[in-house]
């Protein structure tokens, strides 16, 4: 969503528009189940890859080459995935790719939530999904883009950062929020 630059006359209007856009995005994401693998589920997490290396003494498993991780309908695909385990079981997943991709359908027959970034990290103890470098989250035609996106899966809070003035693109966080009911626009 591209908003005009603030001026003394329109600063309050711009703040309101940005707050409404952020609220719409949060409502969109909040209508979906938490974006993460459920490590407390009885459903298994399945992994397939070209190569695997288990370092049991460190609690690290590294998968490389077209890695696909699934749990029910949740899917993570990347070039490389590292799983970290401790005495409580699996606690962190780090995925890298060009890009790494994450997908989870909603439980209420809504649009699936898809995300991609160069690096995706899931930290179970922190209830955090972190998307780094060219991060994009889409749900239907809604879009959220930033250089770094944190998603608190427990509290359903999204925080995003742009890349500043360096790098490619605008360096800003971008959102596209579609109207809830497009069939009533012409009425």
From TrEMBL:
Q: Which segments constitute the Organic solvent tolerance-like N-terminal domain?
A: 46-155
What InterPro entries would the database entry show?
Answer: LPS_export_LptA, LptA, OstA-like_N
Q: Gene behind this chain?
A: lptA
Instruction: Report the protein name in the record.
Output: Lipopolysaccharide export system protein LptA
Q: Which UniProt keywords apply?
A: Periplasm, Signal, Transport
Show the segment(s) annotated as Disordered: 95-114, 159-187
A family per Pfam: LptD_N
Q: Which GO molecular function entries does the Swiss-Prot or TrEMBL record give?
A: glycolipid transfer activity; lipopolysaccharide binding
* GO CC term, one of those recorded: outer membrane-bounded periplasmic space
Where do the TM regions start and end? none
Which PANTHER family has this protein been placed in?
Answer: LIPOPOLYSACCHARIDE EXPORT SYSTEM PROTEIN LPTA (PTHR36504:SF1)
Any one of the GO BP annotations: lipopolysaccharide transport
Signal peptide location: 1-36
Native organism is Marinobacter zhejiangensis
Entry similarity comment: Belongs to the LptA family.
Role this protein plays: Involved in the assembly of lipopolysaccharide (LPS). Required for the translocation of LPS from the inner membrane to the outer membrane. May form a bridge between the inner membrane and the outer membrane, via interactions with LptC and LptD, thereby facilitating LPS transfer across the periplasm.
């Amino acid at each position: 969503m591209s908003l005009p630059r603030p001026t003394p006359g329109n600063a309050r209007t711009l703040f309101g528009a940005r707050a409404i856009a952020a609220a719409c995005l949060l409502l969109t994401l909040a209508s979906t189940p938490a974006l993460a693998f459920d490590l407390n589920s009885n459903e298994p997490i399945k992994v397939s890859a070209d190569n695997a290396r288990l370092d049991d003494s460190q609690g690290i498993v590294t998968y490389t080459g077209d890695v696909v991780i699934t749990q029910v309908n949740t899917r993570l695909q990347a070039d490389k995935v590292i799983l970290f385990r401790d005495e409580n079981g699996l606690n962190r997943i780090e995925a890298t790719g060009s890009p790494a991709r994450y997908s989870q359908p909603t439980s209420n027959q809504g649009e699936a939530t898809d995300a991609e970034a160069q690096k995706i990290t899931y930290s179970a103890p922190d209830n955090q999904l972190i998307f780094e470098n060219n991060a994009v989250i889409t749900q239907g035609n809604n879009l959220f883009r930033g250089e770094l996106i944190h998603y608190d899966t427990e509290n359903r809070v999204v925080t995003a950062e742009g890349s500043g003035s360096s790098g490619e693109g605008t360096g800003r966080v971008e959102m596209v929020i579609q109207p809830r009911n497009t069939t009533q626009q012409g009425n």
